[in-house]
């Protein structure tokens, strides 16, 4: 039977593998979306994306960072655990800026 430490190491390895697969799949999704945007001449405004950063800030949403699993943080106060883990694994806080 595996020890707690071994299971936690396996869990972390699986999380890293899952994140790598998610990032790879994300690239494919982005490419597909871009191709369709060009093919159909879709604009950011039609998608409801025109000026979203400026509008989000002016609306006071305050969300400045999004984690790998959709977690959010406004950049104030204590850093969330997901960001601590990511930065200790070599990622930069700016990698999660929205």
Textual characterization of the structure:
The chain is mostly helical and 98 residues long. The protein has two domains: 1-50; 65-96, no CATH class. It is 53% helix and 4% strand. The chain is built from three helices and two strands. It has helices at 4-40, 52-58, 81-88, and strands at residues 65-66, 72-73. The protein has a two-stranded antiparallel sheet. Strand 1 (65-66) and strand 2 (72-73) form a beta hairpin. The radius of gyration is 18 Å and the shape is flat.
Write the layout of secondary structure elements.
Elements: H1 4-40, H2 52-58, E1 65-66, E2 72-73, H3 81-88
Antiparallel strand pairs: 1-2
In short:
This protein is mostly helical. It has two domains: 1-50; 65-96, no CATH class. The chain has three helices and two strands; from the N terminus they run H-H-E-E-H.
The neighbouring-strand order within the major sheet is 1-2
How far the N terminus sits from the C terminus, by CA atoms, comes to 43 Å
Strand content: under 5%
Residues in helix, %: 40-55%
Q: How many distinct helices? A: 3
Q: What profile does the largest beta sheet have?
A: 2 strands, antiparallel
On the 0 to 100 scale, the average pLDDT is: 86
Low-confidence stretches: 54-59
Oligomer: single chain
E-strand count: 2
* Secondary-structure-derived class: mainly alpha
GO cellular component, one term: nucleoid
Protein name: H-NS histone family protein
InterPro entries: H-NS_C_dom, H-NS_C_dom_sf
Family: Belongs to the histone-like protein H-NS family.
